[in-house]
Automatic annotation (TrEMBL):
It comes from Rubellimicrobium thermophilum DSM 16684. It comes from the Bacteria. InterPro entries: Endoribo_LPSP/chorism_mut-like, RutC-like_sf. This is Putative translation initiation inhibitor, yjgF family. It holds the Pfam family YjgF_endoribonc.
Length: 153
């Protein structure tokens, strides 16, 4: 079963890869590693999911935002692999940035939205190292941003 098949079973699809917002590229391949730039949370229509965790949204809503970041990461991976999912061997590391109030402490629960989707789609190859970091603000007022490192064949 392909990643697209699993996505369809889950009622999901990958968006078009987002263009960079500034002076950087969406991904860089270095040897067998693919480094994908941070992807900000977006709604189904492509609009930015804005807000602060602990003020404008709770951890479950933040997890959904992180899940949208994971879908965008995978869209970039698909582009880097020219559509050949057989080249993706595993997720190595995700780093999640959560815009939050100073008293919000559930950053790991938010970033779980991205982590759990990777495992649901890739099984053991989706298990990864991870960091979840709280920040005061993210680009365009986004609630969550996630970057990733992937191992390619």
């Amino acid at each position: 079963m392909t990643i697209e098949d699993r996505l369809r079973e889950m009622g999901l699809s990958l968006p078009e890869p987002a263009a960079p917002l500034a002076a950087y590229v969406p991904f860089v391949r270095a040897g067998d590693l693919l480094h994908v730039s941070g992807q900000i949370a977006r709604d189904a229509g492509g609009g930015v999911l804005r807000g602060l965790l602990g003020k404008d949204m709770d951890a479950p809503a933040g997890a959904e935002a992180a899940r949208s970041c994971a879908l965008q990461l995978l869209a970039q991976v698909r582009a880097a692999c020219e559509g050949d999912w057989g080249r993706l061997l595993r997720v190595v590391k995700l780093t999640g940035f959560v815009a939050s109030t100073p008293d919000f402490v559930d950053h790991p629960a938010v970033v779980n939205g991205a982590s759990e989707l990777m495992v649901a789609l890739l099984g053991d190859a989706g298990r990864h190292a991870r960091s979840a970091v709280g920040v005061a603000a993210l680009p365009l007022g986004a609630a969550v941003e996630v970057e990733g490192v992937f191992l390619l064949r």
